[in-house]
Design brief:
about 475 residues, six-stranded mixed beta sheet, seven-stranded antiparallel beta sheet
Length: about 475
Amino acid sequence: MDFPEFPGIRALSAVLFLFSHHFQNINAELAERFNVIGPDRPVIAILGEDAVLPCHLSLGLSAEHMQVRWFRTGFDSLVHLYENGMDQNQHQLPEYKGRTELIRADISNGSVSLRIRNVGLHDEGRYTCFFRFGTNYDEATLELKVAVMGSALSIFVNDHQDRGIRVVCESTGWYPEPNVTWRREDGQSLTSLFETETKQQNDLFNVSTSLLLRTNQYRKVSCHMRNTVLNQEQELSISVSDAFFHRVSRWMISLSILLLSVLTPCGLLVALVVHHLRKESKERARLSADVQSLSAELEWRRCRSYAVAVTLDPETAYPTLILSEDRKSVGRGETRQDVPDVPQRFDYSCCVLGSERFTSGRHYWEVEVGEETGWEVGMCQDSVNRKREVRPSPEEGYCVVRQRNEGAYLACTSPSTPLPLSVRPRAVGILLDCEAGKVSFYNADEKSLLFTFTHTLTGTLLPFFYPYRIEGVLKIRAVPAWE
C-alpha cells in the first residue's frame, strides 16, 4: 500500500539531513584539536584480580571511528588495538593474549578504558593510551601498580637470652616489600630495638622481624606491617609477663659473694652459693616453662588465623551416616539409607569427607568430639580407594588421629604412634600446610599440639571424618578467622 507524500515530511527530511551534515562537520573540526586524558595518579590493582586503566577524549568526542591503541614501552609493544570498529589483536604481546578487553560502553563519549584480567607482577609499569583520527593523534601515559597484602601476622617468642626476650613477628606473600614497625602500647615506635629480614619467593616478599626486650618496661608491644601502595596495615600485639624479667644482675651476685667471702666463714659461704645456684636453676626452669607455654599459645593462635569453613559432602557419606541439614555434623545410624551409588561414596567404612578440596596454602578447622570414645579425624587424598575397608596411614593416603578405646589415643602412622595425653581433647584442631607437607593436630581447648605428620600427602586433599559408635556425633566447630 502506497502512502501519499506530504510536503511537510519532505521538508523535515531535508532539515534533518542538513543538521546531520552540519554536526559531522562540527565533529570533524573538533576532532582536529582533541586531547587524550589519563588519570593523574597511578592505577592500583590487586595481584590476581582485574585492573581497569581509564582513558578518555576531551570534549566528549566519539571514538567509535578512531584508532585506539594501548601499548607499553614502544609503539609496537601492543597491549590492545581497536580499529575500524573492532579489536585488531593479531600482533598483541603474547602475555596479554585473551586477557584484555576494551570497555566500549561509553565509547560514543570518548571513554575507552582497558581491562586487564588476572593481573600479575609483570603487568606493573607504564602504559600509553593512543588515539588517531585521520592525520590527528594524541596520547596519554599512565602507571599501573600491583600490590598484595601478605598472610596474617604470627608472633612467637624465639628464646630467652641473657640480655632479655626476643620476640619474632612473621608474615609471607607481600608485594611490594612492606614497611615494618614495632610500637609500644602508647603508639611510640621502637625503631632502635628491632631487626628485619626480608626474602623473596616467587617475586613476593616474606618478612621476619625480631624485637629484643631487655626489660619489661613496655609490658605490651605490637608488630605492624604496612602495604604502602594499598595504604593498608596488619597489626598484632603481645603482652609479655613480668616473670620473664625477674632476673638478678650478674654483677650484683658477684659483689654479694665477694662481700660474703670476706665477712663470713667458708661453710656459710658455700651454703649460700649452693642456695643461690639452686634458686637460679629453678628460676631458669620456670622461665623456660613460661616461654614454652607462651610460644605454644602463640602457635595455636597462628593456626587459627588460617581458619576455613568446612562442610560435609553427602555424596561421599557411607549409607548409614546421618548428616545435619547444615552439613556441619555427622552421626552414625543403624539403618542403611537409600542413597545413589556414586564412585566417590565410601561403601565399606563409615566415613565421610569434607566438600572443600585443598591443593595449596594453609588451612585450619576444628572438630568437636565431646565425650565420644570412637572416632577418626584428619585428612586424606582425593585418590584413596573408597570401595574397601579404610586402613588409615600416610602410605594409604591418610593423615589421621584416632580414639577407639577409653583413654587410648593414636596417630595413625605405620606402626601407630600412641599419644600419651593428660587431658582428653573435647575438640581437635587440624592444620594443613600444603607447602610444608605437614598435617598437625591440636587439643583446641587446651591450645596444645597433639601430633604432626611431616612430608606425607600430596595432590588434592580433603577433610576426613569417621564416627565409630552408633549415635556418636562429630561436629565441625565454627572458628573465627582471628581472636
